[in-house]
């Protein structure tokens, strides 16, 4: 059960079946989050609640697999992406999604590599949530600018 949930309900296992590696599994998880977030665009409080629940589910489901953050574990990307999209719509929503994925993939923004080194499931999840917060911040800057 935990493996199924940790793999974003099997989506994180697709890349290995298609091209023999886990590369891209997180993007499958992020895509699931985007689909979940679409009906929540005009419901920011519910979106925030769903994001917090996704973080809790990520911490729970990834715990047995947290040695080395296996690539097929994609529930952490669901959590981080849901954080990125809270209360956003339109261009800011899309920019937040891209920033969050880019920050998670490259680990180039401050604190993300450090968050990933936290122990166990916390490290698996924290880097994605931090990347999501960067995306959320970028999205809200655009909202503030009138985008």
Q: Would you mind describing this structure in some detail?
A:
The model has no long low-confidence stretch (mean pLDDT 96). The chain is globular. It contains 8 helices and no strands. It is an all-alpha fold. It has one domain (2-144).
The proportion of strand residues reads: under 5%
Order of helical and strand elements: HHHHHHHH
Poorly predicted residue ranges: none
Structural class: mainly alpha
Rg over CA atoms: 14 Å
User: What's the overall average pLDDT, rounded?
Assistant: 96
The multimeric state of the shown protein is single chain
The end-to-end distance, rounded to whole angstroms, is 42 Å
Spatial shape: globular
Q: What's the helical proportion of residues? A: 55-70%
In total, the number of strands is 0
Largest sheet: none
Query: How many DSSP H or I helices?
Result: 8
Count of domain modules: 1
List keywords for this structure.
8 helices; mainly alpha; single chain
Element layout with pairings:
Blueprint: H1 2-6, H2 14-19, H3 25-37, H4 44-62, H5 75-85, H6 90-106, H7 112-116, H8 120-144
Concise structural overview:
The chain is mainly alpha-helical. It has one domain.
